[in-house]
Amino acid sequence: MTGRPLALVVEDAADQATLLGRYLDREGFDVFIAPDAESAIAAFPDIHPVVAVLDLLLPGISGHACSRLIHERFPDCYLVVSSVLDVADYPPADAALPKPVTGADLHRVVEGVPR
Asked: Does the keyword Phosphoprotein apply (predicted)?
């Protein structure tokens, strides 16, 4: 146990997931990466993320549905939607992180998340 807060990343593009993981690690989070919503949901009993970064265009269960499930299971989790879609099409979330994402973008979005 590291004592670091947990960030959940739900992202099907491996390169994007790795990049987000690196950025979140630098921000002081342990990171759990799920390649799809089903993997994230399966992990719910074993994780308690303080922040979740969620892609919308996922195989299987959609990012929109996954965002609702994350909010229901972890009501205090800071939800960040990251997508190539227009921000107007994002589901309700605490923050929007349009792609492509930079480390500075992610820092700005998560700097207020309790650690």
From this structure: yes
